[in-house]
Predict the 3D structure of the following.
Amino acid sequence: MNETVLKVEGMTCNHCKAAVEGALTELEGVESAIVSLQDHRVDVIHNDHVSVKKMIEAIEEQGYDVNA
């Protein structure tokens, strides 16, 4: 398994947290996604079958900006 940390701007509440975590965990190959609202980041545990680009696209589709 791999761990990727993405900086995500615009998350301010538990709804934001749930939206980002949900979008990521729906991707095939993502085992877990944990958002830290305080640190404006998400820690993603995933296998090699999901790319960072795919993860960024899933987050951006929810309306958030990613600084990878």
